[in-house]
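Quick one, T. Sequence first:
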Amino acid sequence: MDDIIHFNTIKQYNAFNNQETLHPLVSIVDLDKADERQGRRLRYEFYTIFLKKIHCGDLRYGLNYYDYEDGTLIFLAPGQVIGSYSEEYYQPQGIALVFHPDLIAGTSLGKNIHQYHFFSYAVHEALHLSEQERSMIMDCLAKIEYELRHAIDKHSKQLIVANIELFLNYCTRFYDRQFITRDNANKGILQKFEELLNSYFLSEKPLNNGLPSVTSLAEELNLSTNYFGDLIKKETGKTAQEYIHTKVVEVAKEKLFDTDKSISEIAYELGFKYPQHFSRLFKLKSGITPNEYRNLN
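Structure tokens:
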């Protein structure tokens, strides 16, 4: 049976991996110490970051296996499920940084944790580190480990959280670097995005389904919504939603040349439920109303 193993506490996850619990809300787990185990679906009720140390294939996302080389980070938000059922045994390898939401509650990190979009990226959108980047990540982990093994005092929580925040800020920088170094691949995705939008507005989909959503387009490109949104922002300077709206106005301008169609008809053809919403967006993007644009031509 494909049961899901739930980890509600850090202590449970430590025990599962033969790891000593030094703090009830945070741990650095040496997965090499874990016993060999069969593939199972695992659900974590805390933030989980895996650093894969060597080439291995124990992580699975959907129906696909992914091999990770030295220095790859995978991020999971609380409530996410990873893995799949398998009768085969494997040896977990790598390091996991796990911390409970209660650890960061009331801190600046707790208030800003939603800004780290990579916690909702798909596994195949992992962060691949250079040797120097991996060294910096390991340095952050070493500082957290030091604080966990240091006698708890009034500074402990602040220093642990500060080092986790530093760790995540470095990851943000490294993801920015990854978007740049994968520029050719990203441009391919941008081109496919443009093709999907063109195809969408040439079909009956807007009339039947409304305006295209960022989520549905990301799914068609086999990307998570946040990764897709961050990629488009890095490549174009616009959010994916802004890009879609720009395309809508571009298509609308072509349609406005057909004076046999009313503004309302054009609005419905573009996927708007209410014509006034179309007029509002058009004026926001172009500075004039659809009627004013039509009268210019």
